[in-house]
Every structure is written in structure tokens, then in C-alpha cells.
Fold each of these.
Amino acid sequence: MKFNTKTIHSGQQPEETTGAVMPPVFFTSTYAQEAPNRHKGHEYARVTNPTRSALENLLAGLEDADHACAFASGCAAMDAVLKMLRPGDQVIATNDIYGGSYRLFTEVFEPYGIQFRFIDMSSIDAVRQAFTPETRMLWVETPTNPLLNIVDIAALSDEARKRGALTIVDNTFASPALQQPLKLGADAVVHSTTKYIGGHSDLIGGAVCTSHDEIYDNLTFQTKTTGAVPGPMDCYLALRGTKTLALRVERSCENARVLADFLAGHPDVGDVRYPGHSNHPGHEIARRQMSDFGAMVSFSLKKDDVDHAHAFMSNTRIFTLAESLGGVESLISHPASMTHASIPKKIREAAGLKESLIRLSVGIEDAGDLRDDLQSAFRSIAT
């Protein structure tokens, strides 16, 4: 099946007892058993739920994975993967990373003896030099958050495999509609299903997709043991959102191209970060490993001043000033004080994240209206 068809049918069958086309929402904590350990596939809802299983089957199909595990949030999904590690193990992570990931790494896992090195992963040589005998995992974001750097998944996966390390790719920014890391050699893919997969800013969820049996066994152990699982209604909302994933992402990408070009030609803009532009340093890798360039655009104003940037972000009407991304609505945010505030300023700036950077999550509204909204914000800060 092609991807657009998979979003509707992958892993999905009409419900057996009624023929319902959409999976029912199973609100239950436990299941009747015919005799001890004789049941119909479900024992207790922390371990499995039919609505959650339907979502996991669909996500596995979209990522061409053998398995998927759904979690209560993207952070819970990351937490479950990292619990495969033991004191003394090392993780090499991209230095331009979501603030919540950095906080989880440094404030939760480092105190337990897990080591993290943050490297510019657009440089394969820099990653090679960072490997040690203790390296167990590469943690990749691409496109990165919020600078939209591009990481070569195939090349890094090959380097990790040679050294017996796992490659984990956070695919939230691209979604499986644009990028399928397992096909490029990654061992597991992490998603915040809150974003493009859900697509309507009405749920919190996460997932991990893999064809690596050991990883899957560890994930199912975590769901059973620590219980950071999504409720059935959130699973249903993610299932429903995924049905339109291909259409939403296609429209959002079209709009992002229009706005990135508009910003690149605007006299009040200093720097535009968008992988679809030929002058982006990762443009050719993005062309090779993605089917489109995504719907995220980051930029700075020519007057590189944080107060100026704040004024701009406070003067949009269609773009909503808010955290998150990947919904049908367009959002504008200030990474340094919002999504990446948990990363110390010195470390943010060393990675290239200026205090004045503005991040757009481009939705599916009319592109002309979005462009006019940005133009109006430019006029509001003109001096």
C-alpha cells in the first residue's frame, strides 16, 4: 500500500462483533477471564487496551515497523527507551534538541550515571570522534528543533551499527508522512503523537516504533511495569487524526514553502531556516531522506533584538502564540523562553539558538492569509 492508503487501512479491520469501521473506545480497566490465564487477549488495561492496540498497529504500519508501543506522552516514550540504559552507558545526542529532551537527559538520567554528549550531528566526523567504548545509543532529531538542521540518518545509523550502538530517531518534526527512519537504518523511531499524528491539538501522547525485538521487549516491559500508557480516548483521537495525516502534512508543507520564500525576501528578516531552500546546508540530505521539507520554519529579524522579536510575536492574529506544533492551526513561538527554556542560555547559544529566534509551525489555513498576517506583524513593529 502507498502511504496515503496506509493512513486509512494499515493494521485496521472492522470491529469483529459489530462491524464498526472505526475502532471503538474501550473504557475498561480489566477484562473477564474464562479461567485463570484464559482470556480473549487482554488481561488488564495498563498492559493492553483494544483501542491502544489499534493505534499501535496503525503506527507500526506507517513506519514500516514490526512493532509499536503507545505512551502517555512523547516524554514518556523517550523515558521508556532510555530505561534500556545502565549506569556508565553513554548517549550521543544532537546539540540542537527539544528542551524537554534535554531536561529528561540531564536532570533525570544523568544523576543515575548515564552520560550524555551533545554534538552537532550534521558533522559525521564530530559524531565519529564522540564515540567511546561506553556509547550505547545515538539520539537523533532531524529536522532539529528549533534550528531545523538536517542529520544524515543513514550515515549515522551505519556508524552506530559498526560500534554496536543503537540509533534512535525522534521523528516528530517530519512525521512518517515525510520521513521513515527505519528504512534508513535506524533501530527505533520516537514520536510525540500530540503533534502531526494527532494533528488537532486535542491530545497528549507518544509512541515508539521498531522492528528490533529486544527494544520492543523492553518497551512492553515498561508499559506493564511503569504504566505510562495513554488512555483509550487519547488513542481514539490519535487514530482519528492519523486518517488525515497525509492530507494535512501536504497542505502544511505547501504553506510553509510560501511563507519561507516570503520571509527570505522580506527586508526586515535577517535569517531564515528552512530545509527546502537550496542554500540550507542540509538541503541535499533532506531531499534524499524526506519526501518534502516539512512545515516548520524558523527565522530571526534583521533587528536582532529579543524585545523586537517579542513584539512581532505578540502582533499576529491568525498565528497563535503558543507552544507545540503540528496541528491544523498555525502557531508562532519563542523557543528560548518557551520550548527550550529548560536549556541553559549559554548552552542554547553555543548550539546557535539566539534569544531572538522565532519558530513557526505552519498549519493548513489559506497561505495568503498567513502571509498577510506576518506582513501585518512586520508593519506593527516598523519604526
Note: Residues 88 and 304 are 42 Å apart (CA to CA).
Amino acid sequence: MSKNGLNYAYYPGCAAKQIQKEADWSARAISEKMGIKLHDMPKATCCGAGNLQEHDPAAGLAVCARIFSQAEEMGMDICTICNTCLQTFTFANERLKNEPELLEKINEVLAKAGVRPYMGTIDVKHLIWVMVDDLGVEEVKKHVQKPLNGLKVAPFYGCHALRPHEVFNGRGGQAPQYLDTIIGALGGESVDYNGKDKCCGFHTMLVQEDTFLKMSGGHSLEAKREGAEIMVSPCTLCDMALGAYQARSEKFLGQKIELPEMSISQLVGTAFGLDHKKLGFNRLHQNPENVFKSRGVA
């Protein structure tokens, strides 16, 4: 449970504020339904997402510590819906909590910027962790108004929330369970396939497009061959790679995929009976309506 009940300092990440807005909309909608209170962090900046950490590690840690300090001042753990933000924050928080001298140096940087010191007291969680670990699966089930009736759903975890599992306190690893657990709670059937815990290829998108299209399209094809009717991810960047680029993957691979992909929050919202417009269905690149209708999830 969060240190402040079901109250969290909400960090959607940059992608959810711009190109993947539907992930943010649906996350807010289902959280409100479940009584999970997401408190905005208006002063928060980009987490740096790897690029800053590689170019200037000290600056990357300072940026993360500044955001942690804001959440700490709010008295809340951070909740995010972006795997890359989750990884960036978790790695930084691990170091800051376990290296006192480093934390002291970073706090000196924060002081020069007029920011309160970070005391190392907050945790960083993904919304799916909050749903399963903090709220509880039985509570999630109570809000299901339109069960998925055995809909075959392919979970795509995204690598940035899995490895190394020690850093994620055992929540990751080679046999992740959170998406599968949530899919089952909604009345769906989780499809097992080799790519569920692999990389979507997003970070090769601009430098090796052929590799990216082979990876993202290949995962979707494999999931469909295993019987998937829809694919979900807890990561905004994976959403983009698997959904927005599916048509380009089809062209590159010379095969039709035609597998609707959406954020896990949108699937949860559908089972909760929330309005599809509120969940941002109009922004999806593959229309899932017929899939849901075929299972009686109107």
C-alpha cells in the first residue's frame, strides 16, 4: 500500500501528454472508478528517459531527485503509466537510497536550484502494480460491469518494467504476472507467446527501422498465431510501436497482422463499462469494436 492510502503523485510521462493521450485519459478514468486518487505534479519535468542519463549521469540523477522531492513533499509515492519512466526512476531511486554520499551530492545540486532535499522515502510504482498489490484483484473485479467473456488477450509487458527483476523488487523477471492477472480478473483469457516479455524495438525506430518493424510486427504476428484477438501493453512507447506502426510493419513483412492493440487501461475501462470516447478509442489505429462485439462486450 502507498504511504498515503490510495493517493499517488501521478507521473504519466511525456508520451502520454502528447502522442499517446488516450493512455492518460483511460488511466485517469479507471483510477477514478476504483478509488485510486492520482494527484498531478505540475512542476515535474521529463525524467530524462535514458538519453540524459547517458550524456550526463549526474544531471540525470538530479532531474529524477527533483521529481522525487516533489512527490515526497506531497507525502505520496509516484505512480506512472510509462515503462521507460518507471525504469529511469527506479534505477535512480535505487542508487539514491543506497548510496548516501551520492544522495548528499545530488541534494547539494538541488539546493543550488532552490529545491528541497530528497530524503529517500518514496517508492515508484506502475499503475498495474497499484491495481494488483495496493488495491487488490478482488477490488478490481468488483468494478467489472462487462466481463470480457473469454476474450483472448495477448499481454505485452515491455522490457523496461522487467529487467533486472531485483531492482523492481521481484515484480519483473522472466515470468511476469501483472497483466495476466488483470486480464483474468476482467474475464479474459491471457495468451501466452514468446514475445510477451521482449523488447518492442521502439529505441531502434529511428536508427534501424527495418529491425524495429521486424520486432514490433513479429511480436504481433506471433501473438495472433497463438489465438490472440487483441493485444494490450502497460507502456506508452510499446503502445506506439505495436499500434501506430502496425500498418508499416505489415507492409515491411508482407503479411497482414490486423490485431487491435491498446493500453491495458483502455481494456480495463471497457470491462468497467466506461464510455469508449472517454477511453480514447477514437485515437486507436486498429478499431477493436468488432472484436468486443463478437464476445458480447458492447
Note: The chain has two domains: 7-126, 136-294.
